[in-house]
């Protein structure tokens, strides 16, 4: 007789074992997307009928109806520009507050979202559509391509995201997959996936760096590869730095040349686009030759431009130098130097620029690894991880959080709870206390970023912890815990612990950091470390002084009668001086005024203590006292 | 369970880095959420919590400085809050002089020298700690740890200052 097993709904054990459905790896890129499959530790990108692996990340909603994705959508850009969306990845997880960041970048009507997600929507083809919906169309097309190529249903995927994608963007990516009918086995960071592709295919071991320069973003990650373990040690980047900057530099030069020659320079959107397109073409030409030329047509006046590799190198040198700068600070974060690096993997189309290759090779002291196509390497790594997750492979991927997570404390100072480069999953907690007597609520403000002050970091979520029992300032113990799961998603909870009154509030940040903000914040933190520290010290001095003033005030209300009129006047004058100093910018002045006040009020404090002891002792027999002492 | 026990290692300041990695990787192989993708939610939650504890233990023990502080906590040595007050007059003097030197250092080389000195002092102080732990001399451990904390902070400040100068020269 067979015993029947009963399971909770949705909790069937090993639902995937032995099923016909396959798991793929997907690189959902800003410009292009790729889907790949791995079998027995070897992965391959899936091609269309014409043999192309790259699917342009473009979606069209034609006037005639239906939805087009990829090259077909791109073909519609000329005739129906308002019905075609590109670069939707830049809007994933963006809220209304981020709109300024993308204004002018994307030629769409963008409207603030409604409801709980607060994510923006685009007005495309006469309908408001969310970035999640639009990304889902790309994922559906990739899924269809995979099913056609593999002749089997595809229901599960590992999807890659930039290491710098914040909580909201990761959630949005998961949601898009769900809309496309794909179960996300894991979100994997793009550089980590690239390292997987190299490590698993080539069996590399040691310390490896991944240098990922795309159209608009730069990421640098450091990993240790050892017997199937991929341990990310540190990661960093700049999301407003990439090949687009190179194109812009070339285009500006050509437009300058036209101006110099007195040619028509009525610049409109179309002519700028034409200049950028030609610039891009010339840049690509210079990947394997020393000189290139092109013809630019604006307002019916053609102009001819030549560009040598040496000139191009000079134009992009500062951008490349910045990527090296960031790379070095990631190395420093991990306590490593360039010579420790066994090999550096190049990812992203912009790493085809010869100067990038030379400079990276120069920094690491070894030629970079380029034998896997930089456009496909991320998807190939994702496919390998999908196989490892479903087939029970022996690979172990240990990733980290890219940005610090913390809380706002008194005076707008950030208290970091989860420092950047903490291995995930992570669960960290810190105790906080109340600031004022009888304080019954505490406002919890969750922020992300490297700077010392809240105003310079990105706000992720706010909530109130209510019902704190009345206690003197500093007596309550409020534990705030942060949990970051293996996908990099954050949950925050708070509870009051002293009185046994436990109140938990869970928060899932609904939307967060814009891609560019994140990079800017990281970069700013390096620039401003010293200024930040000074500001922090000043703020701490103010907070400390305020705390002292509050305590003194409370004591004066209760025991003010212990002071003579003269003493009271002197203390009040010192209080006023401290208040004035606190409004100023000098930490030394605040500390000096606080010390003066403390010295003045010391006799008062002593008298209060005497009175307290007398009160405690009064009415107590000698025997009581002795038994107390004996305790 | 303390961090050492979680990783199956002896609670000692001198820890073999290779043994630490080996223990950590082996346990992560067992508990990492990637191993539980197809398991029921309660098992997944347990694995996630275990993996997070392992990460915390690993992160704490990996760095010799944080390992020393953790071990001191286990030995009942209490340290005042994060570097706000220095109650050791010798250390106070050392800190003031070093800060002044950093303030006056105008060149990258001068700052690098100060940072390198601080790092060397950290190594020396760490080397001396083992015997203090063996003797369970809490007063001396506390004094040494306060100095280590200050040196670490100083090295970090020097690094921040170096980056600022580097950037303004660029």
Written description of the protein model:
The complex is a heterodimer of chains A (631) and B (170). By secondary structure, chain A is of the alpha+beta class. Chain A has three domains: 22-241 and 316-398, Nucleotidyltransferase, domain 5; 405-526, Sandwich (Substrate Binding Domain Of DNAk, Chain A, domain 1); 529-617, Substrate Binding Domain Of Dnak, Chain:A, Domain 2 (Up-down Bundle). Chain A is built from 15 helices and 27 strands. Chain A is elongated and about 95 Å long. Chain B contains seven helices and no strands. Chains A and B meet through helix 8, helix 10, strand 19, strand 22 and helix 12 of A and helix 2, helix 3 and helix 7 of B.
Number of strands of chain A: 27
Can you tell me the CATH superfamily of the largest domain in chain A?
ATPase, nucleotide binding domain
% residues in beta strands of chain A: 15-25%
The total beta strand count of chain B reads 0
Number of helices of chain B: 7
The CATH architecture of the largest domain in chain B would be Up-down Bundle
* Count of all domains of chain A: 3
- Name the helicity range of chain A: 25-40%
Instruction: Characterize the largest beta sheet of chain A: strand count, sense, and whether it forms a barrel.
Output: 6 strands, mixed
Q: Roughly how many Å is the radius of gyration of chain B? A: 20 Å
Radius of gyration of chain A: 30 Å
Structural domain count of chain B: 2
Largest sheet of chain B: none
CATH topology of the largest domain in chain A: Nucleotidyltransferase, domain 5
Assembly type of the chains comes to heterodimer
């Amino acid at each position: 007789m067979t015993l029947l097993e009963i399971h909770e709904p949705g909790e069937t054990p090993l639902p995937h074992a032995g099923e016909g459905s396959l798991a793929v790896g997907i690189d959902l890129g800003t410009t292009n997307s790729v889907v790949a499959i791995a079998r027995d530790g070897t992965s391959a990108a899936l091609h269309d009928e014409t043999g192309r692996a790259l699917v342009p990340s473009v979606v069209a909603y034609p006037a005639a109806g239906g939805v087009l994705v990829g090259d077909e959508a791109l073909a519609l850009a000329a005739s129906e520009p308002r019905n075609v969306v590109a670069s939707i990845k830049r809007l994933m997880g963006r809220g209304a507050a981020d709109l300024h960041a993308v204004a002018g970048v994307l030629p769409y009507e963008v409207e603030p979202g409604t409801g709980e997600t607060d994510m923006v929507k685009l007005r495309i083809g006469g309908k408001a559509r969310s970035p999640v919906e639009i990304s889902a169309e790309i994922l559906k097309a990739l899924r269809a391509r995979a099913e056609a190529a593999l002749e089997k249903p595809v229901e599960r995927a590992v999807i890659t995201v930039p290491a710098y994608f914040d909580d909201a963007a990761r959630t949005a990516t998961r949601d898009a997959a769900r809309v496309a009918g794909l179960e996300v086995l894991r979100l994997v960071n793009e550089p980590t996936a690239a390292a997987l592709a190299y490590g698993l295919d080539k069996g590399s071991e040691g310390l490896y760096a991944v240098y990922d320069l795309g159209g608009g973003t730069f990421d640098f990650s450091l990993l240790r590869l050892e017997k199937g373990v991929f341990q990310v040690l540190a990661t960093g980047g700049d999301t407003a730095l990439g090949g687009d900057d190179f194109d812009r530099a070339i285009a500006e030069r050509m437009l300058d040349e036209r101006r110099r020659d007195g040619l028509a320079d009525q610049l409109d959107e179309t002519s700028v686009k034409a200049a950028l397109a030609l610039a891009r073409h010339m840049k690509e030409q210079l990947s394997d030759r020393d000189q290139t030329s092109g013809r630019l047509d604006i307002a019916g006046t053609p102009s001819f431009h030549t560009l040598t590799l040496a000139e191009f190198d000079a134009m992009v040198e500062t951008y490349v130098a910045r990527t090296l700068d960031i790379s070095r600070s990631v190395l420093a974060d991990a306590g490593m130097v360039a010579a420790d690096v066994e090999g550096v993997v190049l990812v992203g189309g912009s790493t085809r620029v010869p100067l990038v290759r030379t400079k990276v090779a120069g920094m690491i002291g070894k030629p970079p690894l380029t034998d896997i196509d930089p456009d496909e390497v991320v998807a190939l790594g994702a496919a390998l991880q999908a196989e490892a997750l479903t087939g029970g492979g022996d690979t172990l991927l240990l990733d980290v959080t890219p940005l610090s997570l913390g809380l706002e404390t008194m005076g707008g100072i950030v208290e970091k709870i989860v420092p950047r480069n903490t291995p995930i999953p992570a669960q960290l907690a810190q105790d906080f206390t109340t600031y004022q007597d009888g304080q019954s609520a505490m406002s919890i403000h969750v922020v992300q970023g490297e700077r010392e002050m809240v105003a310079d970091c990105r706000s992720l979520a706010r909530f109130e912890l209510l019902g704190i029992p009345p206690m003197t300032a500093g007596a309550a113990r409020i534990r705030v815990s942060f949990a970051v799961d293996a996908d990099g998603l954050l949950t925050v909870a708070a509870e009051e612990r002293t009185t046994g009154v436990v109140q938990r509030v869970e928060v899932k940040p609904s939307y967060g950091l814009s891609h560019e903000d994140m990079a800017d914040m990281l970069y700013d933190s390096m620039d401003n470390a010293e200024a930040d520290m000074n500001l922090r010290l000043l703020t701490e001095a103010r907070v400390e002084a305020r705390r002292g003033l509050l305590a003194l005030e409370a004591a004066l209300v209760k025991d003010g009668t212990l002071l003579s009129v003269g003493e009271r006047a002197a203390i009040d004058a010192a209080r006023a001086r401290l208040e004035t100093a606190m409004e100023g910018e000098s930490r030394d002045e605040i500390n000096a005024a606080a010390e003066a006040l403390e010295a003045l009020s010391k006799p008062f404090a002593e008298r209060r203590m005497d009175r307290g002891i007398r009160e405690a002792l009064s009415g107590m027999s000698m025997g009581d006292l002795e038994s107390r002492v004996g305790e | 369970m303390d961090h050492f026990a979680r990783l199956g290692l002896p609670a000692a300041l001198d820890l073999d880095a290779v043994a630490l990695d080996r223990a950590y990787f082996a346990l992560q192989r067992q508990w990492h959420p990637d191993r539980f993708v197809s398991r029921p939610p309660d098992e997944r939650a347990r694995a996630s919590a275990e993996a997070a504890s392992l990460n915390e233990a690993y992160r704490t023990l990996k760095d010799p400085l944080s390992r020393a502080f953790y071990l001191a906590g286990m030995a009942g040595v209490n340290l005042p809050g994060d570097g706000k007050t220095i109650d050791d007059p010798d250390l106070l003097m050392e800190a003031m002089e070093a800060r002044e030197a950093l303030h006056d250092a105008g060149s990258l080389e001068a700052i690098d020298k100060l940072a390198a000195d601080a790092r060397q002092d950290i190594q020396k102080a760490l080397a001396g700690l083992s015997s203090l732990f063996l003797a369970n001399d809490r007063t001396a451990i506390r004094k040494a740890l306060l100095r280590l904390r200050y040196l670490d902070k100083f090295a970090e400040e020097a690094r921040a200052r170096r980056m600022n100068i580097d950037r303004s020269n660029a």
